[in-house]
Amino acid sequence: MIIGNESIFVMSPNAHTAFGRQGLLFVDVENGAYVKTNDYHSIAFAAAISSVATRAVRCADFGEAHQVELLNQLVDKRLGIVCSPEKVPYSHVFQPFEYIVDDIARWRRNGEQALLRQVAPQLLSELTVYVTGQCSQGCPHCHYLYRQVRCCNKYGNGLMPPSMLDAVLRDARGTALSRVHLVVPPDKLHQYSNDYGAVVAAHGLGFDIWTSWSEEELAPSLGQGDCALNVVVPLMNGGMPQFELNVAVRYHFCVASESELVAAYGYLDRWPEVSITVYPVYNGENEVFISDNMLLTEAEILQQHIGMRGIIRNKRMNANAFGELYMFANGEVRAAPYAENLANVTNITLSEIAYRELLCNDGAWLKTRSSLSGCSSCVYAELCPPPMPIDMMLGLSRRCHVE
Ligand code: SF4
Ligand code: SF4
Fold first, then answer.
1. Number of domains in the chain
2. Which of 57, 158, 303, 380 is 20 to 30 A from 222, alpha carbon to alpha carbon?
3. What pLDDT score does 312 carry?
4. pLDDT exceeds cutoff 60 at 2
């Protein structure tokens, strides 16, 4: 590469720069190509290129041998190009990124509570309703599963009166709420789906049904049209009795051991036309399985192709939780099923609860990797997936094999 006095180096629009305990990282967030260096003299270069709006530097300002070497590596990996100032090929690098979550971060810093209260209703998009905490079954996973997937549970006791759900949804008019997930136990699947589904539909909202797997035949009519039927299937002891899967149903297989994982792949092979999602879950005693199967390697992190939008999202918010609220049979509401109780809907509206969540210093919506002690100084903090329910349940401050 020949660098003339007038040349500039311009970062690719897909290039992300991060500095952490592992050094300095330049990575293409679309194809995973990267350059990593521990040359701390290059930090000035990285700072210059990341901070200016054009994401460009004059090559003449970075002409020392180690800097030229770094520029060459970046150009080789197509993380940027050297060109004359008049011939920059990237037009969109000059566009500023504006996202509401940036505003929220600023308003929180500046104590602008009125603005946070105003925006909160527009952020609420999904509500999960655990219709009842009453159930006569004795599933061993009951206590653990509902905090990781939308599974029926015995928390909250009692049965939510349909009138309570009706009042909550009436108060939620004017929010951005568009979808309700109704979670019901399998022995009351039809009755509760009809009763509570009618309440939700009367408010013009879309809804789907979630239940736990049982041997009773599922009514195909529940899994059609806009109302999807989701069945959470714990593959206890490696499987479930042989059963005809229904193509109209979405299955969520929860696996807690290697043998269950193998069994899940067996179902995927046997039923390619059926919607099956496989979730590794914590069951109170399988930390080794979780650590063997859920910890990310450096190569996996770099090959995620998350794009610049993903980077910006990961910087400010938790995409696994943002915009959602979970309401239990007794009216308690949380921002995530594993999170602390925020309030009870018998006292305040969902809009007000969303506002409370935005004010929380340790809330679920804004919990990013950088806010965890193990990840805060890591160069991959904005590349890694945001904390998931399983991270929070196990108190994992990081989830990787990375040093
Ligand atoms: S059916 Fe659902 S609520 Fe009942 S014990 Fe099993 S997981 Fe818990
Ligand atoms: S989980 Fe945390 S420590 Fe591990 S690579 Fe990701 S950000 Fe870094």
1. 2
2. 158
3. 82
4. no
